[in-house]
Design goal:
377 residues, mainly alpha, 57% helix
Length: 377
C-alpha cells in the first residue's frame, strides 16, 4: 500500500512539473508572437558598477557590455566620505546676487523660443502651431531640414516640409535644437560656439534622450517633461565664469565640489535659477538643482516632489557618460545604492542600458552634429 502511495505521489509530481513546463513555454511563445522578449532571469542586487557571469545568461546585456567594456569596471571619481552639496538655503546671499546678475546680463529667453520650448513639452500640442513658429526663422528651419536629410535618417526622398521634419526628428530632439538656437543669441559667441559649449550641448541632448527613455520605461513618467529636465540639466555651465575649466583644473575632485569651493555655488544651482528666469515649471527647476545630489546624499535630502526626477536625470547623466558622451570636464560620479533600492531597480547601470536606449542616444547625437555644421547648400 505504501509503495502504491509513493508511486501515486511521484506520478502526481511529474504531472505538475510537466504542466508548469507547458504553461511557461506557452507564455514565452505568446510573448514572442507579440514581439516581446522572453522573461529575463532574475538579477540579484549588486554594488553599482559590478559585473559577473549572470549577464552571460542575458544576450541583450552581454551585447551592451561587449560594445561598452567600461561598464564592466566603471572608472568612478571618488566622492569623499561625508561630502554633501550645499542646500539652496546655504548659498550665500552675495553669491546668489552674483548669479542673478550674470543671468540678467545675458538677457531673457526670446518669446518665440520660450513658447516653442513649452509647446514641445506637451505631446498634445498643435503641430501646425509649432510649424508656424519655426517657419518664422528661416535659418533655423534650414538647419532642421538639413538635420532630417542627414545620413542618419537615410530617407529615400528629400524632405522639404518643416512640419514633416519636426515629426521625423521628434519633439524632444527639436527642443534640443531650439535651446541651442536660443543660447547662441544670448550667450557671447566666443562661449556659445566654443568647442566646450558644443560638447556640453551634445552631452545634454544625450542626457535628454536617456532621461526620457529611463523615466518612461522604468517609472511610467512623461518622457516629454523628463526630456526637458535632461536637456537643461547643465544649462548653468553656460553661465559660469568663462566656461568649464576642464578636468585638469580639478583632478580627482568631483566637479560640483570644486565649483562650490571656487565659486560658492554649483552649475546645478545656477541652472535652476536660469530655468526660473525662463519661467519654466518649478518642478523642472528643482530637478535640475538636485540632479547631482544622488551622488552625495541620501534620498531624504531631496524634496519629495522631485526625488524621482532628480534621480532619473542623475542616472541619465551617468548613462550618457558610460556611452562616451561626457560633458565638459566631468568625471563619472557613482550613485548611492539606496536610490536604486528605493525604486526597485538593479543597482548596476549595465542592466538598464538597452539597445533601444543606445539607438535613441545615437539619434540625438547625429541630429545635433548635423545641425551644427555650417549651411553650404
Amino acid at each position: 500500500m505504501e509503495s502504491l502511495k509513493a508511486i501515486a505521489l511521484l506520478c502526481a509530481g511529474t504531472i505538475i512539473l510537466c504542466l508548469l513546463f507547458l504553461f511557461f513555454r506557452t507564455r514565452i511563445k505568446e510573448r514572442q508572437s507579440h514581439g516581446l522578449p522572453a522573461p529575463a532571469p532574475v538579477k540579484t542586487a549588486r554594488l553599482v558598477g559590478s559585473h559577473d557571469n549572470r549577464y552571460e545568461q542575458d544576450p541583450e546585456i552581454e551585447a551592451v557590455l561587449n560594445l561598452y567594456p567600461v561598464l564592466k569596471a566603471i572608472p568612478y571619481v571618488l566622492v569623499p566620505e561625508g561630502a554633501v552639496l550645499k542646500s539652496a538655503d546655504a548659498v550665500e546671499a552675495s553669491a546668489r546676487r552674483e548669479m542673478e546678475q550674470r543671468i540678467s546680463a545675458c538677457g531673457l529667453l526670446q518669446a518665440n523660443s520660450g513658447k516653442l520650448l513649452n509647446l514641445l513639452r506637451d505631446p498634445e500640442s498643435n503641430p501646425g502651431e509649432i510649424t508656424i513658429i519655426v517657419s518664422t526663422n528661416p535659418v533655423f528651419s534650414a538647419k532642421l531640414l538639413r538635420a532630417v536629410n542627414s545620413v542618419y535618417f537615410s530617407l529615400p526622398r528629400r524632405i522639404t516640409s518643416v512640419g514633416r521634419a519636426i515629426t521625423l526628428l521628434g519633439y524632444n530632439n527639436v527642443r534640443s535644437l531650439v535651446l541651442q538656437d536660443a543660447l547662441q543669441s544670448m550667450i557671447p559667441v566666443n562661449r556659445a560656439g566654443s568647442d566646450t559649449s558644443v560638447k556640453i550641448w551634445v552631452h545634454s541632448a544625450i542626457v535628454s534622450a536617456c532621461s526620457a527613455y529611463l523615466g518612461k520605461t522604468n517609472f511610467g513618467l512623461s518622457e516629454y517633461e523628463l526630456a526637458t529636465m535632461g536637456l537643461l540639466h547643465d544649462i548653468g555651465k553656460y553661465y559660469m565664469e568663462g566656461s568649464d575649466p576642464g578636468p585638469h583644473a580639478h583632478p580627482g575632485v568631483p566637479l560640483p565640489l570644486w565649483e562650490e569651493q571656487t565659486y560658492g555655488f554649483t552649475h546645478a544651482f545656477l541652472g535652476s535659477l536660469v530655468v526660473e528666469k525662463w519661467r519654466l515649471p518649478a518642478l523642472v527647476s528643482r530637478a535640475i538643482a538636485h540632479h547631482h545630489d544622488p551622488s552625495f546624499s541620501s534620498p531624504g535630502n531631496i524634496p519629495a516632489d522631485c526625488i524621482r526626477q532628480s534621480f532619473i536625470v542623475c542616472l541619465a547623466d551617468l548613462t550618457a557618460k558610460l556611452l562616451d558622451y561626457g560633458g565638459a570636464g566631468d568625471g563619472i560620479l557613482p550613485i548611492r545604492q539606496e536610490y536604486f533600492r528605493n525604486f526597485g531597480l538593479p543597482d548596476d547601470p549595465a542592466a538598464l542600458i538597452t539597445p533601444t536606449l543606445i539607438k535613441e542616444a545615437h539619434k540625438a547625437r547625429s541630429i545635433v552634429e548635423s545641425y551644427v555644421r555650417p549651411i553650404t547648400d
